[in-house]
């Protein structure tokens, strides 16, 4: 991701930058495109983990068998699911 600054977007990008930094050794050997796709996948997984920590979601999972799904839409190759 580099250290390029995007002004107001920097606040929104901070979690993604931290995720990239945390997984840098894993992502480094990949091509730029492969690393970007993997980072997107890691971001979706992290988002699901955050949502799963919310009390109302936990209750719905236990009481009503709520299932959560993360999706990545790649306009070049159609829908990818996880």
Continuous helix count: 4
Give, in order, the helices and strands: HHHHEE
Low-confidence runs of at least 5 consecutive residues: none
Report strand order across the widest sheet.
1-2
* Rounded mean pLDDT score: 88
Helix/sheet category:
mainly alpha
Family: Belongs to the beta-class carbonic anhydrase family.
EC number: 4.2.1.1
Organism: Penicillium crustosum
InterPro entries: Carbonic_anhydrase, Carbonic_anhydrase_sf
Question: What are the SSEs and their pairings?
Answer:
Layout: H1 9-22, H2 24-27, H3 32-52, H4 55-64, E1 71-74, E2 78-81
Antiparallel strand pairs: 1-2
Brief sketch in words of this structure:
This protein has 82 residues and is mainly α. The protein has helices at 9-22, 24-27, 32-52, 55-64, and strands at 71-74, 78-81.
Q: Any overview of this molecule?
A:
- With 82 residues, the chain is mainly alpha-helical.
- 60% of the residues lie in helices and 10% in strands.
- A two-stranded antiparallel ribbon has the order 1-2.
- Strand 1 and strand 2 form a beta hairpin.
- The two termini are 23 Å apart.
- The mean pLDDT is 88.
Keywords:
82 residues; mainly alpha; two-stranded antiparallel sheet; 10% strand; globular
């Amino acid at each position: 991701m580099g250290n390029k600054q995007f002004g107001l977007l920097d606040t929104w990008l901070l979690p993604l930058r931290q995720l990239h930094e945390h997984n840098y050794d894993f992502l480094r050997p990949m091509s730029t495109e492969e690393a970007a796709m993997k980072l997107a996948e890691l971001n979706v997984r992290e988002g699901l983990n955050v949502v799963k920590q919310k009390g109302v979601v936990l209750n719905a999972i236990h009481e009503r068998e709520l299932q959560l799904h993360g999706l990545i839409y790649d306009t070049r190759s159609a829908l990818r699911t996880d």
